[in-house]
Design brief:
By secondary structure, the chain is of the alpha/beta class. It has five helices and seven strands; from the N terminus they run H-E-E-E-H-E-H-E-H-E-E-H. It has a seven-stranded mixed beta sheet with strand order 2-1-5-4-3-6-7.
Amino acid sequence: MNLRIVPFLCAALALGLTQKTQATDAGNEVPNCALSAIDTTQQSYALKQFRGKVLYVDFWSSWCNPCAQSFSLLNEMNRDLKDKGLQVIGINLDEVPEDAKAFLAKHPASFTVMADANQQCAKDFDVKAMPSSYLVDRNGVIRYVHLGFRPGEAKEFRALAEQLLAENPVRK
């Protein structure tokens, strides 16, 4: 072994051992975010309450054009796959609730929409783009992460969700 590369290998190994694993990584457990209803009901949610369902968690904002495009896919998946165990959850990151409500008036959602007012859930997921989507299996493990949205990807998203729905149910 070339002795000149040993320090570099040691540094790389140390960096790898100390690097924080982000919740966005496939294979990690979904964070148990505290979220609130976007309307005036004051209802609160925790993502772990949906354990046993396949989750499609989508972070969006009113200023995001690709987010608006993704709502037709989310509505379709909710309509077609809800009875098979899919729970579509849209998490809004707008700082002004009225912006989100105006967006929803133009782009109605048939799926569950929540607000992340303090953006802690977005931090827990380490959201890097809008929209950011996470497919979570019935055991609460993030299986797929996707940043952004292009209409041509809708079939792939749906196929991945159907794949998770076909898997065995929850482990205890």
